[in-house]
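Our platform keeps sequence and structure together, in a single record for each protein. Such a record has a labelled line for the sequence and another for the backbone structure tokens. The tokens are whole numbers drawn from a learned vocabulary of local backbone shapes. The remainder of this section carries one protein's record, kept here as part of the documentation:
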Amino acid sequence: MNLFAQELKRFFNAAGALERIDALRSEMTPEVQAEIDELQGAMWDLESGGHHDGIAGAEGTATLRALRAATAVRASFTAMLAADTANLREAPDDDVAQRQAWR
């Protein structure tokens, strides 16, 4: 059943953001891979619970860590999308598909 659910998610392009980012990991530079690792770690820390002490405590620290990590990953993907947009109409289909995955 789990395999069927995964296939449905892939078919309908319904994977979560972290799943999509993780699927692109192998194509990224080591710096971007480190940013993705930080984002995943921050999200796991935030979702693990146990932080119910408000924005000034551990909950706030975990939230800010996740936001900073998400901003860094987004900046990296934005920079990759901004690069070489002049020849996009003449780009091979693989390059266009790659850019779509980054979006």
